[in-house]
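pls design
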């Protein structure tokens, strides 16, 4: 009965709001089966107007197309006849890259004349103190750390990227050639933010100049793709054991519409893959409206908003206390473009790969770091930012690197919004057990000797820890809200 209600609500209620929240690949749906793909496929083929396009076994999904004249009746028929083997039906959404408009300077080639100008134009690296972080660490990353850049592909032959590229995949053409198209260059730009080598005079350098980048192409030359291919790319990255996924794209959608994508993000998180996502470019508070995958919150996810050179929020960047974890420079970012060119782009699309690359750089020092550890480390070591996020902070590579090198004790999670009645376990990194936990505002919650915090009333608090050596540390803001 619950499944029937879900489908009924999706078919009729979600259709009423679809124009406001999402765009669908015409006539295409994703059907989640529980155990038996063949039984689900048999039912679908028996429904008038339904054509089976493909299966995504890793997600237990069947991709179908319904002829326009049969769409309403077919959906009704499927919902009426829903059995225990079909869990839900969701639209195959259009997913788009997340760049924002700005005053472009135009693309250039690398020349001696542009070298000094390009170095000065890479203001984001100076802002987060990347050079100082490299010096403190004594290296610039490691090619043992693999980042899957799920995007428009990448120009893997680019002079500033080629040494850091590893084989990828094209999910649009179902081939092993994820070459980026000159028309877009979005994936090439994101790849350069992460790991341009800095070895080309007049070229650019990424936050992790030594890294392995796996380009996975599911967005076309116009920066548009589908939920189905996004899921295929995510599951491919999981299967190939990447440590990090960088996702600079999204779709405004309800949780029901985005359910297949949310489940894919969870699979990645559960597999230990750190999933770094752009917050989006609608200039809105995502605590109050849905965009995915940015609003999919799991242990190993990091959602990134954008900041400007003067630390202000670009008017297009999304923000939010509970959904945006932190911010990074994202306006007028100089990076690589296809065919050995360089140019500037803006957007949370540029902020997210900066965090992905910094994550890779930190993992080169400490491979055992999880996504929730890195998220907390970046939050407690970040510089103050007026852009609304969980920590009100902007990444600082030097502070994060020094804290890691010095094994400075910190708490996970470092910042959190939770509901009354919810419980979470706080963990201590780089401390010596046993630990003494204290909640600083007992009006909003309690904490036991094992770090289990239970929210009892709305309000604001912090959690403090003292380890066996007497070292003290505390979280940032823990916010409790009514559910």
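designed seq:
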């Amino acid at each position: 009965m619950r499944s029937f209600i879900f489908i009924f609500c999706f078919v009729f209620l979600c259709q009423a709001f679809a124009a406001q929240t999402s765009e669908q690949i015409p006539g295409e749906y994703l059907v989640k089966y529980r155990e038996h793909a063949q039984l689900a496929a048999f039912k679908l083929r028996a429904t008038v107007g339904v054509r089976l396009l493909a299966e995504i076994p890793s997600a237990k999904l069947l991709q179908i197309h319904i002829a326009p004249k049969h769409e309403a009746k077919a959906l009704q028929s499927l919902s009426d006849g829903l059995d225990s083997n079909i869990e839900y039906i969701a639209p195959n959404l259009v997913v788009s890259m997340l760049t924002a408009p700005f005053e472009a300077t135009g693309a250039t080639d690398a020349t001696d004349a542009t070298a000094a100008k390009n170095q000065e134009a890479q203001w984001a690296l100076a802002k987060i103190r990347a050079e100082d972080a490299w010096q403190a660490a004594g290296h610039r990353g490691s090619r043992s750390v693999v980042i899957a850049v799920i995007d428009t592909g990448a120009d893997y032959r680019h002079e500033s990227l080629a040494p850091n590229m590893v084989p990828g995949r094209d999910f649009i053409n179902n081939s092993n050639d994820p070459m980026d198209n000159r028309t877009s260059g979005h994936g090439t730009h994101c790849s350069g933010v992460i790991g341009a080598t800095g070895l080309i005079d007049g070229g650019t350098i990424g936050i992790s100049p030594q890294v392995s980048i796996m380009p996975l192409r599911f967005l076309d030359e116009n920066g548009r793709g589908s939920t189905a291919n996004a899921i295929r790319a995510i599951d491919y990255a999981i299967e190939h054991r990447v440590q990090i996924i960088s996702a600079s794209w999204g779709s405004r959608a309800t949780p029901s519409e985005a359910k297949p994508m949310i489940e894919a993000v969870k699979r990645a998180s559960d597999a230990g893959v750190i999933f770094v996502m752009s917050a989006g470019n609608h200039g809105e508070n995502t605590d109050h409206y849905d965009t995915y995958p940015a609003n999919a919150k799991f242990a190993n996810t990091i959602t990134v908003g954008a900041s400007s050179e003067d630390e202000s929020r670009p008017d297009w960047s999304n923000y939010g206390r509970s959904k945006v974890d932190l911010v990074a420079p994202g306006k007028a970012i100089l990076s690589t473009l296809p065919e050995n060119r360089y140019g500037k782009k803006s957007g949370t699309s540029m902020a997210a790969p900066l965090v992905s690359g910094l994550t890779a750089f930190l993992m080169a020092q400490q491979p055992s770091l999880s996504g929730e550890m890195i998220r907390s480390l970046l939050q407690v070591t970040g510089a103050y930012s007026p852009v609304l996020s969980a920590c009100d902070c902007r990444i600082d590579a030097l502070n994060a690197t020094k804290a890691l090198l010095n094994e400075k004790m910190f708490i996970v999670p470092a910042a959190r919004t939770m509901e009354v009645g919810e419980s979470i376990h706080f963990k201590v990194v780089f401390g010596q057990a046993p630990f003494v936990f204290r909640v600083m505002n007992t009006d909003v919650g309690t904490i036991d000797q094992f770090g289990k915090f239970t929210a009892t009333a709305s309000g604001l608090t912090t959690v403090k820890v003292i380890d066996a050596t007497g070292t003290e540390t505390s979280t940032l803001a823990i916010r409790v809200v009514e559910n």
